[in-house]
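Hey,
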Amino acid sequence: MLKELRIRNFAIIDNLTIDFTEGLNLLTGETGSGKSIIIEALEMVLGGRASREMIRSGQDKAVIEAMFFVDENLQKQLYEMGYEQSDVLILTKEISDGYPSVSRINGRPLTLNILKTLTNRMVDIFGQHEHQSLLDTGNHIIIIDSLITQEGKTLLRNIKEAYLDYRELQKKLKDLSVSSQERERELDLLKFQIDEIDDAHLKEDDDEAIEQQFKRLDNLKDTIAQSYQALALLNDDYESPAAISLIQKSIEIIGHSGRYDQILQEHGNSLQALLYELQELYRGISGYIEGLDIDEEELFLLRERLDLVNTLKKKYGSSVEQILSYRDVTKERYDRLINIDKELERLEEDILANKKKLLVDSENLSIIRKKVAGKLQKDMEKELLTLNMDNVKFKVDFKMLSEPTDRGVDKVEFLISTNPGEDLKPLSRIISGGEMSRIMLAFKGILADMDNMPTLVFDEIDTGISGRTAQVVGEKIRRISKSHQVISISHLPQIAALADTHFVIRKASDKKGTITKVERLLEDERVDELARLLGGVEVTETTRRHATEMLQMSNKMKK
């Protein structure tokens, strides 16, 4: 159950703490006092999307904190999620201006998905917008499926998985099921591409190796000319002394001057060795250059080869590796199209087998749903009878879809007749807001018992009702509060009188602005608040007396 809710700097709320109790907690207050803002804050701390616009004017951060007492099942779930096992759970939501909002469990941050997984089993909030969700027939089957047995839930899970496979197979079949003309056209194109790449006999290093070889041959004339220049610098060219002749001259000089100097003789020997090495190098370079031949035909072939590789690059990839990879993918597609008849036959067999399994599971699930629907019909009529809707008829209508979906083959719609002699009609045809509120309350009562939901929140569920009906609705909420904690916002004195704990929401203004305050009422203060609800603007002795009688009757009812 929700024990405490703290709200700071949220909308018109400055700093607010509400201590909730077991049973029926009721919040009343004038229009615009901030009742719905409190529920909105609770929705956000439970995992709703935060809006920076809700930060109080002049502040940079809003903080919402909710403390819960949790049962053993939730404690176990917390432990399995990696949190310390405790009977106290504190949820915190920080909404900052300029930063992402942050949610925490017992001080540790977590994602919204994990938070919602947990809080969906803790609190169920019913606001006026949920009328619309019930009018959407697509939600009716979801309500039925929330009531089915574990066997039914397993079937539904299997159907969802099989349906995904079924759709994937259908997509593959559609992709392959091209017309004969389109298929032949694509086969011709694919074969041309494969042949064009195969005829090139590419190797992975072709682009680099061919380019290097082409550049070498293309620059061979310059290479030979420059090499002869280098040789001329090594040996005499009859115009100027070269390296070899200069070294020879140096050897002669040192040989003469070193006749009597051992060290110079050693240097002379080193020069002689260098001379031999240069002469050998000269002969090697000269022989290599003389053997070079400019092969114009080979150069032409290399240029053609290089152009071919570059053309293939433009079509199929920026490197030889990518071209070869493209060829492999294209060949796979080609082989599939060549053998498409066999593959189409196999896919059609797989689709039929998958659909057959889907239909079998769907039919079994439909049987379970119809049993649940039969009980729901009786329970709803019984609940609505206690809510002052006499002679009401409620039916869960089943129709079979022509194609299975991820929920099977059932199309479910809730039908109702609220007056004797009237035909059953869709819920969307109900015009009365009071009837819709009672229908929602009946659903919530049944679903809460099935789901074992600890806390139920009703945000003005009494819309469109008054008088005796309001009393009946109040008694129903009171009965629900015996097995669940209920937090309800109401404007009706008949419901307010039945509260175990009564809070009044007031709006106050000062120089700093407008703020919302919450006050837990004592018994005599409740008389004044009920009198206000009964009398509107003026509180008279008559309305006070009437309020006192209502509280006395409610206290007797509680006992």
